[in-house]
Amino acid sequence: MQEAAAQESAPAGERNDRRPPFRDATMLLQDFLQLSDQFARRLGGELDVNATDYRAMEHLLRAGPLAPGELARRLGITSAAVTTSVDRLVSRGHVTREPDPGDRRRIRVIPAQASSERASAIVSPMVRALDAELDRFTTAEQDAITEYLRRVVETMRVHSSGEASDADGAGNTGDAPGVQPVP
Hints:
By secondary structure, the chain is mainly alpha-helical. Helices cover 61% and strands 8% of the residues. It has seven helices and two strands, in the order H-H-H-H-H-E-E-H-H. The protein is globular, with a radius of gyration of 20 Å. The model is unreliable at 1-6 and 167-183 (pLDDT under 50).
């Protein structure tokens, strides 16, 4: 039992179990996704928000003001659920509701400056450190890394949306839809 737990927490390249033979890079992506979730929980805790509210904040911080309907669409939740989420965020001072200047019948949800700064103070050092790691690679290597990650994101987008015709990857050519192979 302890050996299984040790294997589970071991870095991708050091695992020695009976899992399918995925490449180290693929296993590292899985580790990255798990750590991203852990970081999101930490940031949500720092901001005193639950997972849904944190995801709403992420969208607002990246996109800027959004209509509640658009926020609901991005989160994949109902309009009633987004109203509840926005109510919680307003009560904690993370967002405000303001009339849309282009159509005063509509409202926009706007991230509060203080919350944006607080989140940025936590996220920016990590992003700078990740970005600095790229400096260890040549320009050509950086281009290859960027292309690989672009393909990973597109592949995950397709599989997350349910558009993939072969979810387990069997028979996959390795090319994400719309991504041209690199010669």
